[in-house]
Give the backbone structure.
Amino acid sequence: MVQAQPERITQLFQVQYPIIQAGMIWASGWRLASAVSNAGGLGMLGAGSMYPEVLKEQIHKCKAATNKPFAVNLPLLYPSINEHIETILREKIPVVFTSAGNPKTYTGVLKEAGIKVVHVVSSSKFALKAQEAGCDAVVAEGFEAGGHNGREETTSFVLIPAVASAVSIPVIAAGGIATGRQMKAAMILGASGVQIGSRFVASEEASCHPDFKNAVVNAREGDTMLMLKELTPVRLLKNPFFEQVQQAEANCVGKENLAALLGRGRAKKGMFEGDLNEGELEIGQVSALIDRVQPAAEIVQQIWEEYNAL
């Protein structure tokens, strides 16, 4: 049986707690990242929704707000990836989480600069590829997670122990984790740390729109669904835009028409600008357990205290 070893994560990232704030687009700016890092976890900037100049500005503001380590999340499918890599190297970011692409592409370059690299995976097969590419750890992200997700629909309770048994590098559990109880379950299944997204969306410091935060707080079981599998799978909160996507998929309109329906800036419209009707609202199933917006430091402390109480 694989044993949880939280010290592998705390030592790897030089943090107090093995709690990582996910790099969610339109939610993970410098205020949230610095607040989580100052509270003892690992805060993360979500570069997926940032132009190169914006990422530079966010890094500088985060450095001014905390002297603790923080990370940058880098989805490898975004067009500004090379400029983001240059910024990360220049600014000497200590930890980078990559996702949505081949980990071999940039892991070597980042590792040569002394950066710790973690790749997000949705299967044991991809976890092994990340390990072979030289990654320092992997995030095993289950089907329950918000945002972009794997097509396999493997739940966290299956994925975490499978990945923990397959690789020798540390495993960070993600997908359906918002409480200390869920963190404890993930660690029992073989994870050495947890990555949490949805609960930090409902934080005072998250950069997303207050109306989106309130929609997350009001969500219940069954209010999210994995959609757009023909493009890039994403878990969405049900709203009128979701219904348009659902109808289009039921009519088998094809990739081009789905892409046209999605258009540009749909996630920004929903999560950052607060258009709850026409916007794309990305959030995890665990939103059903979130009942209020809190300071990020309070969230970290509550999760850690509940975890230790068990």
Remarks:
- The first helix runs from residue 6 to 13.
- The chain has a mean pLDDT of 95.
- The chain has two domains: 6-207+289-309, 220-286.
- The chain is about 45% helix and 15% strand.
